[in-house]
Amino acid sequence: MCELFCLSSSWPTTVAFSLEELSRHGAVGRSTVDGWGLAYHDGRDVRLYKEPEPAGESAWLAFIRGRNLASSIVISHIRRATQGALSHANTQPFTRELAGRMHVFAHNGHIVDLTDRAEFDVPPFTPVGETDSELAFCDLMARVSSLWKGGVVPSVKGRFDIFETFCADMRARGVANFLYADGEIVFAHGHRRIQSDGRIAPPGLWRLERRCSVDADKLAAMGVDIADGPPDQQVTLLASVPLTDEAWTPMSEGETVMLKSGRVLTLAECV
Description:
Layout: E1 3-17, H1 19-26, E2 35-42, E3 45-51, H2 59-67, E4 70-79, E5 94-98, E6 101-111, H3 132-144, H4 156-171, E7 174-181, E8 186-190, E9 193-194, E10 200-201, E11 206-211, H5 216-221, E12 224-226, E13 234-239, E14 249-250, E15 255-260, E16 263-265
Antiparallel strand pairs: 1-4, 1-12, 1-13, 2-3, 2-4, 5-6, 6-7, 7-8, 8-15, 9-10, 11-13, 11-14, 15-16
Helix pairs in contact: 3-4
């Protein structure tokens, strides 16, 4: 299955990747990478880099490492293709503009029968590629677009409710691990994935919360390099599998979390 990774931090931090190493750590029975993508949020915009080919010989990754890009929201996706051609259009993360800001989405799993939804007769958001993941993203964007009207940033609670309903609908149609960021909040949903014994079972995502820096040396060995931040830096990481021997928390089946500025938001904090 594909691999997901997300960073949320209270201060922008430099993140670089060895995606082949990250891929090998999470692979079950195979390590082939059919594509990769990185999205660094930059205010309302996103720096998006992706290729429909293995990362091992990519000049792009060397370029990205040399750029020392800093961001407080980073989303990565490593593709093992199950649907659609090996093309740029089918490579994640996917992005769409809504209300003057870029929204980012990545999916691990497989979803069926999305086009039987009545909303897709005249969809306001149309896929460019052929994957179930992008179709699901278009569905989500159609749902949240009703909130982002009139130039007013919608409530976090309103966004959470729509995302949670979307995830419940997708769980009924397949395996649904999602990362979605609107430039302010990261919404993540854990479901199931192929485990080391071959079963498709929870957890689909793991979470690590740290004040100050994470164990940079251990993460680097698994393919993720994170620079040290200020003393009060708060960092939360999400990944398809634990990347270090630290106390990663498995997300329960169907669990949804929200991240803002490096920490997990509770519903009581949402307005």
